[in-house]
């Protein structure tokens, strides 16, 4: 009985709140107000919320490597036709920025400008080696769920230009509550020679060797053997550089601990609404 | 409680109508160049069992499997209470959450195992684990796949994981010139440094290596310890193994493993599951 009373008492309050939401329409929020001119786009957003006709997806990245931190990831949900990269073709400048410096913002800006774009977000922070990263949440209109792709890129920051992720992977027609998981390899952006030196690698391994940071990140010059995206051959590192085998790269600031094998990341996508 | 009953009723209905056959056939192919597979742990289980998970610390049971190839008391009495038998319950029994079996013997490099007949007792998921020897703590893992119900043959590729419970020193455990720091224990299996399974390697291991992920005579932080001592540090949680480093010398260099023989690239194993017609 008490519960019922409380519920009844709350009803008018809820009504007031709902009305209040409607009034906010002067900035372009829902329904009728949206029709009024300039702020029409904002109005659409309001309707989406009220009718709940958005599908919600969460994306979570696991770093499978021993010691390569992942930069913040660029995550894009989109319609077919968009590609962050294509094997055997030149990397875009936005991908070069991500793969050399770990900054995902140019990829997101570039994705937003495409007609296939539905939603994009940079993941919350870097993902440490051997760890499960933070959850990112993305929203797309229900109408687009039947033909939906996800692309994701994140840099292995103790490398010249290695990245891992997904390229237009199909996640169409997922049911609410359904999860799919991908174990994915690493690519070489092909935009920077794999010199493994402190002045060309932005991550902590280079910082420990007196380099690293922004100045060691993006460089517009393209000096790799071939300026084309391809599978990464792995880090050579300075291991075994000084023994009789001479297999290592004596000028590398990376150690055997910085090596990896594929897959380098696990990506779990869950539709939550 | 009510919900639970309904769920069981649904599961029961499914089992009578769909899952006529509970016994499946499993083969595992070792795709590596020179790594043997230790006895295979095959578990059919529900969602409450997770034998390993990348990004999550290994259990002592996983450490026993990945460092010494040990699954149950019968293999090694010292593992009692810490191994997968302790974690899961008796073998070939319906332990409610799981049923499991150890398929014994080694699977040699570039060979396929015998066909194992395994009764899943209608548990929905399947995991398979086997250690790679000679390594410190590498294992191949099939990670909770949903067991198919339609008759047919299904193929899965397995990656090599690092259990993260022992530093990859790549030191020959038959060496007597070096011992574990403080304890003075000989190198080898669970809880001590050194690679396990030296004797099974198809090529001879070196001696005199100075250590890869950790150096003989030095602690993890690089400070000096006894010149003949090795530490047994950890490098978890579970992650994809970065591969053997190795070197080409049998008498010196960093590693006692051979870079030309003991390395691999994923995948390291192929598992084939056959669901028989009812």
Description:
Chain A has 273 residues and is of the alpha+beta class. Chain A has a domain at 54-188 and 261-271: Immunoglobulin-like (Sandwich), CATH 2.60.40.2130. Chain A contains 6 helices and 10 strands. In chain A, strands 3-2-5-6-8-9 form a 6-stranded antiparallel β-sheet, with helices on one face. In chain A, strands 4-1-10-7 form a 4-stranded antiparallel β-sheet. In chain A, helix 4 packs antiparallel against helix 5. Chain A is elongated. By secondary structure, chain B is of the alpha+beta class. In chain B, 11% of the residues lie in helices and 24% in strands. Chain B has helices spanning 2-17, 60-68, 84-88, and strands at 23-30, 36-37, 40-45, 98-103, 116-119, 125-133, 138-146, 152-162, 179-180, 229-230, 239-240, 269-275. In chain B, strand 6 (125-133) and strand 7 (138-146) form a beta hairpin. Chain B contains 3 helices and 12 strands. Chain B has a domain at 21-164 and 264-275: Immunoglobulin-like. The radius of gyration of chain B is 20 Å and the shape is globular. The interface between A and B is medium-sized, with 25 and 29 residues.
Task: Describe what is shown at a glance.
The complex is a heterodimer of chains A (273) and B (278). Chain A is α+β, with helices and mostly antiparallel strands and 273 residues long.
Give the SSE layout.
The complex is a heterodimer of chains A (273) and B (278).
Chain A lengths: L1 H22 L8 H4 L4 H12 L2 E10 L10 E5 L14 H9 L3 H8 L4 E6 L8 E11 L7 E7 L6 E9 L8 E6 L1 E3 L15 H5 L21 E2 L33 E7 L2
Antiparallel strand pairs in A: 1-4, 1-10, 2-3, 2-5, 5-6, 6-8, 7-10, 8-9
Helix pairs in contact in A: 4-5
Chain B lengths: L1 H16 L5 E8 L5 E2 L2 E6 L14 H9 L15 H5 L9 E6 L12 E4 L5 E9 L4 E9 L5 E11 L16 E2 L48 E2 L8 E2 L28 E7 L3
Parallel strand pairs in B: 9-10
Antiparallel strand pairs in B: 1-5, 1-12, 2-6, 3-4, 3-6, 6-7, 7-8, 8-11, 8-12
């Amino acid at each position: 009985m008490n519960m019922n009373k409380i519920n009844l008492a709350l009803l008018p309050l809820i009504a007031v709140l709902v009305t209040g939401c409607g009034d906010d329409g002067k900035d372009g929020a829902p329904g009728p107000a949206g029709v009024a001119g300039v702020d029409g786009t904002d109005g659409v957003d309001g309707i989406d919320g009220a009718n709940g006709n958005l599908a919600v997806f969460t994306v979570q990245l696991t770093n499978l490597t021993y010691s390569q931190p992942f930069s913040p990831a660029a995550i894009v949900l989109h319609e077919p036709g968009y590609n962050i990269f294509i094997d055997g073709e030149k990397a875009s400048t936005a991908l070069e920025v991500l793969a050399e410096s770990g900054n995902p913002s140019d990829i997101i800006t570039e994705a937003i400008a495409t007609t296939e774009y539905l939603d994009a977000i940079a993941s919350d922070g870097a993902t440490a080696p051997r760890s499960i990263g933070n959850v990112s949440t993305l929203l797309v209109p229900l109408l687009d769920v039947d033909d939906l792709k996800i692309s994701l890129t994140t840099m292995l920051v103790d490398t010249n230009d290695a990245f891992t992720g997904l390229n237009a992977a199909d996640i169409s027609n997922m049911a609410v509550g359904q999860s799919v998981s991908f174990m994915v390899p690493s690519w070489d952006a092909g935009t920077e020679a794999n010199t493994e030196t402190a002045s060309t690698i932005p991550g902590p391994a280079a910082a420990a060797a007196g380099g690293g940071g922004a100045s060691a990140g993006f460089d517009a010059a393209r000096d790799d053997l071939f300026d084309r995206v391809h599978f990464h051959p792995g880090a050579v590192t300075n291991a075994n550089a000084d023994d009789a085998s001479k297999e290592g790269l004596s000028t590398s600031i990376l150690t055997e601990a910085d090596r990896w094998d594929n897959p380098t990341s696990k990506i779990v996508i869950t539709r939550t609404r | 409680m009510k919900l639970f009953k309904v769920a069981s009723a649904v599961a029961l209905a499914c089992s009578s109508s769909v899952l006529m056959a509970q016994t499946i056939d499993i083969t595992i192919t070792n795709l590596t160049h020179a790594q043997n597979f230790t006895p295979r742990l095959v578990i059919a289980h529900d969602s409450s069992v997770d034998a390993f998970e990348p990004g999550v610390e290994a259990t002592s049971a996983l450490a026993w499997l990945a460092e010494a190839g040990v699954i149950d008391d019968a293999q090694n009495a010292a593992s009692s209470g810490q191994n997968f038998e302790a974690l899961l319950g008796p073998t070939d029994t319906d332990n409610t959450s799981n049923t499991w079996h150890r398929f014994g013997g080694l699977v040699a490099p570039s060979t396929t195992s015998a066909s194992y007949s395994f009764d899943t007792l209608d548990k929905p998921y399947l995991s398979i684990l086997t250690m790679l020897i000679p390594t410190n703590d590498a294992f191949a893992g099939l990670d909770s796949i949903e067991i198919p119900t339609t008759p047919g043959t299904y193929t899965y590729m397995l990656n090599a994981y690092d259990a993260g419970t022992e530093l990859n020193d790549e030191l020959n455990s038959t060496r007597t010139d070096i011992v574990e720091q403080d304890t003075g224990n000989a190198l080898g299996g669970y809880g001590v440094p050194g690679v396990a399974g030296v004797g099974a390697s198809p090529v001879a291991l070196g001696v005199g290596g100075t250590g890869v992920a950790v150096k003989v005579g030095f602690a993890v932080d690089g400070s000096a310890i006894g010149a003949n001592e090795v530490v047994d540090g950890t490098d978890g949680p579970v992650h994809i193994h970065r591969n053997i480093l190795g070197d080409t010398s049998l008498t010196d260099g960093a590693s006692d493993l051979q870079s030309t023989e003991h390395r691999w690239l994923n995948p390291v194993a192929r598992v084939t599951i056959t669901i028989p017609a009812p």
